[in-house]
Design brief:
Radius of gyration: 20 Å
Helix content: under 10%
Number of helices: 0
Structural class: mainly beta
Strand content: 35-45%
Strand order of the largest sheet: 2-10-9-4-5
Length: 178
């Protein structure tokens, strides 16, 4: 039943996300009367999450993300945010990891996606090897078309993840100021 789930990761926030207490199809008794269960933000018969989130990849080894660092917590619109992260191959085999950088605009004048992929890079590591990955993200790349159809970067709070796929990683915060 995974055929009905959305195949995109950068969907807009509906304001009604599933809270994981909703009634799923497997919980409804056979021949139950038809009723509205209020399921508006997910697929009743497919559950809450995709089988494999956007960016998910298989490997013969495992990786650990450590020591994520942001160059600054407050940046002006013409600045560049530098994000660094240490990636370690914790498995027994050499492997390639696709390190991904996601950003979320917490509050915008128009509805903004839950997460946007802004950078990614491939890193091949031998067992036990650690490498520092560096991403440079110009703040101007956080721009979007506002309601007046003007491309702009609005000041405010942003979330950031360096992760192995779109539903993993710890959230870090930064702020764009005028």
């Amino acid at each position: 039943m995974v055929g009905q789930i959305p195949i995109y990761y950068a969907h807009n926030s509906t304001g009604r996300p599933a809270n994981r207490t909703e009634t799923l199809i497997d919980d409804i008794p056979v021949e139950a009367g038809q009723t509205s269960l209020g399921n508006t933000s997910f697929y009743l018969d497919a559950g809450f999450d995709p089988l494999y989130p956007f960016g998910y990849g298989l490997s013969y080894t495992t990786f650990r993300y450590d020591n994520i660092r942001l160059s600054d917590s407050e940046l002006k619109k013409d600045a560049v945010l530098t994000v660094e992260c240490d990636i370690t191959n914790t498995g027994e085999y050499e492997g390639t990891e696709v390190v991904q950088l996601y950003v979320q605009d917490k509050v915008g004048s128009v509805t903004r996606p839950v997460k946007e992929l802004k950078r990614f890079t491939r890193v091949t590591l031998k067992p036990g090897e650690t490498r520092t990955v560096v991403f440079d993200l110009p703040i101007e790349e956080l721009a979007f078309w506002n309601i007046d159809m003007v491309r702009t970067v609005e000041p405010g709070d942003f979330g950031l993840w360096v992760a192995t796929h779109s539903q993993s990683g710890d959230e870090f915060s930064f702020k764009v100021i005028d």
